[in-house]
Specification:
The chain is α/β, with parallel strands linked by helices and 330 residues long. The chain has 13 helices and 12 strands. It has helices at residues 3-18, 27-31, 37-42, 50-81, 116-122, 159-164, 186-194, 207-217, 226-230, 245-255, 280-283, 289-294, 312-327, and strands at 84-89, 105-109, 130-135, 138-140, 150-156, 178-181, 199-201, 219-223, 237-239, 275-278, 298-301, 307-309. It holds the Pfam family Ub-Mut7C.
Length: 330
C-alpha cells in the first residue's frame, strides 16, 4: 500500500483498537501527520461524541484519497525530472554512513544542484576518506555537479596509489610525513612522537584556520571529528576510527605505510622537539640517587630540556612499538 494512503488509515486503526471515546483526544495529533495537512489541521475532533468522530474520520479519509488521486500524476512527474544517482561505495566506506543500516549501494534522487563532495559528505563520509570518484565511468573531482542520472562509484583513499600518482582528489603528500592532531586524539599524537614522527597539536581555532595552518606546514590532520575533515581547507587528513590510542597509531601507520619510517625515541613526547644525547656528568645534579646508580645513557630534549633514560617504561614502549611495526602491512 502507498505510504500516503497508509497514513490515511492510521486514525481509523487507532479508534478500532482503542474502542473508547477517550481515544479521540489523541487523534488530533495523529491526523496532523496525514498527507493532506490542510484537511488534517481543520479536523479538530477532540472531545466530540464517538459517532461524530467516526464521521469526521471517514470524511478525512475521503478527502485525503481525493487529494492523492488528483496530485499523484504531478508528484510522479516531479520525481521523474530529478536526476537519479546510483551510488556504489567500495571498501569499508559504507561503515562511515550516518545511517547505520544504509547498504553499500543505493539510489538517490537529487532535488537540488550540489557538488559530489557535498553529496558524499551528507552521508557522513569526510572527503579525506575518498580516494577516487567515477561518474558514468569517468573520473571526476570534488567540484563535479551531477545533472543527469548515472552511476557513481566511490573508492576509499589508498596512499600507495596517491604516492605513485596524485589523483584528481588528492595532491601529493609532502615528505617527510608530518602530522597534526586535535583534542580528540591527543594520546595518538604522543604515540606518533614516540615513533619518531613530527606531530603538533591543532590550535584552538576555527576548522578553516586549522585546515589552512596544516596546509602551510604540510601536515596530515588526524582526528575523530568528522566536521573538521569536511572543511574545504583540509587537503590531507584521516578520520580515526578506534577510540583506543593503542589501536589508533596502528591505523595511521598502516594507512601511510610507515613501517620503515618509524624511528622510536628520537622525539620528545611532550613538546615534539628532537632528543639529543647528553653526558651523564653534565646532568648528574639533576638525577635521583637510584637513577645515578643504575643508568648511564641519557637523552635530553632540546626544547623543554626534559631528561630521558632507558628505564622500565622505555622497555614497555619498545615492545609496544615493535608490535605496531609487525602489524603494519607496508
Amino acid at each position: 500500500m502507498d505510504n500516503r494512503i497508509r497514513l490515511c488509515f492510521r486514525p481509523i486503526m487507532e479508534i478500532m483498537v482503542a474502542g473508547k471515546p477517550e481515544a479521540a483526544a489523541s487523534l488530533h495529533h495523529t491526523t496532523s501527520v496525514c498527507y493532506n495537512k490542510r484537511a488534517a489541521t481543520a479536523c479538530n475532533i477532540a472531545g466530540r461524541p464517538y459517532k461524530n468522530i467516526m464521521a469526521d474520520i471517514l470524511y478525512h479519509l475521503l478527502a485525503n484519497l481525493l487529494y492523492i488521486r488528483r496530485h499523484k500524476k504531478s508528484i510522479h512527474l516531479k520525481e521523474m525530472n530529478n536526476p537519479l544517482l546510483y551510488f556504489i561505495f567500495k571498501g569499508d566506506l559504507h561503515t562511515l554512513f550516518s545511517a547505520k543500516k544504509r547498504p553499500s549501494s543505493f539510489s538517490l534522487s537529487l532535488t537540488r544542484k550540489a557538488s559530489i563532495k557535498d553529496i558524499i559528505e551528507a552521508f557522513g563520509i569526510p572527503h579525506t576518506e575518498v580516494g577516487k570518484i567515477e561518474a558514468g565511468g569517468t573520473e571526476v573531482d570534488f567540484t563535479f555537479c551531477p545533472e543527469h542520472s548515472q552511476t557513481v562509484v566511490v573508492f576509499p583513499f589508498d596512499f600507495r596509489t596517491t604516492q605513485k600518482l596524485p589523483t584528481l582528489l588528492h595532491p601529493e603528500i609532502g615528505k617527510p610525513i608530518r602530522f597534526m592532531v586535535d583534542r580528540t586524539v591527543l594520546k595518538l599524537g604522543r604515540n606518533l612522537r614516540l615513533a619518531g614522527f613530527d606531530t603538533t597539536v591543532a590550535p584552538a581555532k576555527s576548522f578553516r584556520q586549522t585546515g589552512l595552518q596544516a596546509e602551510r606546514e604540510g601536515r596530515i590532520i588526524a582526528t575523530r571529528n568528522r566536521d573538521l575533515l569536511k572543511c574545504a581547507q583540509v587537503r590531507h587528513g584521516q578520520l580515526i576510527r578506534s577510540q583506543d590510542h593503542r589501536i589508533q597509531i596502528g591505523e595511521v601507520c598502516d594507512r601511510y605505510g610507515l613501517r620503515r619510517k618509524m624511528n622510536i625515541f628520537t622525539r620528545c613526547p611532550e613538546c615534539n622537539a628532537i632528543l639529543a644525547k647528553v653526558a651523564k656528568d653534565d646532568i648528574l645534579h639533576l638525577l635521583e640517587p637510584l637513577t645515578q646508580k643504575y643508568y648511564t645513557s641519557f637523552m635530553r630534549c632540546v626544547g623543554c630540556r626534559k631528561i630521558y633514560w632507558r628505564g622500565s617504561h622505555h622497555h614497555k614502549m619498545s615492545v609496544f612499538m615493535d608490535q605496531i611495526r609487525n602489524r603494519i602491512s607496508f
